[in-house]
Design a protein that fits this description.
With about 120 residues, this protein is mainly beta. It is built from no helices and eleven strands.
Amino acid sequence: QVQLVESGGNLVQPGGSLKLSCESSGFIFNNAIMKWSRQAPGQERELVAGFISPLRIFYGDSVKGRFTMSKDSAKNMVYLQMSSLQPEDTAVYYCGARIYGRDFWGQGTQVTVSS
């Protein structure tokens, strides 16, 4: 079965950096479209980043220039490097995989940006 497990969420200061990791299993990694989303309390779920093609990544307008998505196919791992974090980045971050037209999501990891 498909498994997606996020880690790395933490409390960080404004302007700080944080790297999230996603360990995946249960599917052929290179056949999936990997992505990250987030949801803050009272707000709609937002797509943060995702692969459009093997060499092109989509980033939401709110995170462009600050977040970088990457993957390690040999380890079935996906990462989200976040920098210049601000309080509005506070949310639960989810790792996702689109596999043959169906979306799967992990349980999420909490990121809190506060002084």
